[in-house]
Amino acid sequence: RALELLDELGVADRRNNYPATLSGGERQRVAVARALMNRPALLLADEPTGALDSRSGEQVMDLLIDLNQIGQTLLIVTHDPELATRCASRLVEFADGRIARQSVLGATA
Asked: N or C: which terminus of the chain has fewer CB atoms within 10 Å of its end residue's CB?
């Protein structure tokens, strides 16, 4: 399972490296793989693409969307409106610590 996740996230070739030798984006992708390892009922993701370049971010989001489509429940916190609308079925926006707006979207995530 670990190798499958690392491969899907594009870091399988770095599996024998120490964390200090990985880039920030590689560390982020390893963290996503680690979070998914035990197939949690609910996956909490705080800025899952925050430290990633656009290509790596797309890989992570594609994986999360695929997991959601097979039944994985996700709660994603992000400051990126494009990411939120692409991946969410429900969007809750906060301002000053309060819910500012809620909407139901057409995505399947």
From this structure: N
Dmax over Cα atoms in the chain, in whole Å? 45
Within 8 A by CB and 6+ apart from 73, the residues are: 41, 42, 43
H helices present in the chain, as ranges: 2-8, 24-36, 54-69, 81-87
Both tokens assigned to 54: 């656009």
Q: Mind listing the pLDDT tens digit for each residue in 50-69?
A: 878 888 888 878 887 887 88
pTM summary value:
0.69
- Count the Cβ atoms, other than its own, within 10 Å of residue 68: 19
Give the SS3 label for residue 61: helix
Amino acid in the structure at residue 56: S
Set out the domains of the chain in order of their start, with CATH numbers.
2-104 (3.40.50.300)
CA dist 69 and 63 (Å) reads 10
